Task: inverse folding
């Protein structure tokens, strides 16, 4: 079986609290079970979510484009402020 999320790397634990719909919670619980079956290692949903979110934002082409534009705007604003002083 292939999942979009690869096996998690070694990491130090961290805690995160979010509120999700019952449907999303069920889907995330199912994902964690499928992850366990795929990789033979149990991970909690809370441990998977940061990697799922990172994967999501790094593969979202529209987000990448908008983020670059945002960074360019900030850089241009900084350059404009520096040249006017």
Result:
């Amino acid at each position: 079986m292939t999942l979009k999320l690869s096996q998690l790397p070694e990491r130090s634990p961290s805690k995160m609290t979010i509120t999700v719909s019952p449907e999303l919670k069920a889907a995330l619980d199912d994902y964690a079970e499928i992850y366990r079956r795929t990789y033979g290692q149990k991970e909690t949903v809370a441990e998977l979510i940061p990697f799922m979110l990172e994967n999501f934002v790094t593969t979202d082409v529209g987000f990448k484009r908008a983020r670059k534009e945002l960074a360019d705007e900030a850089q241009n604003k900084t350059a404009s402020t520096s040249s006017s002083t």
About this structure: Helices lie at 22-39, 45-59, 61-84. The chain has a mean pLDDT of 89. DSSP finds three helices and no strands in the chain.
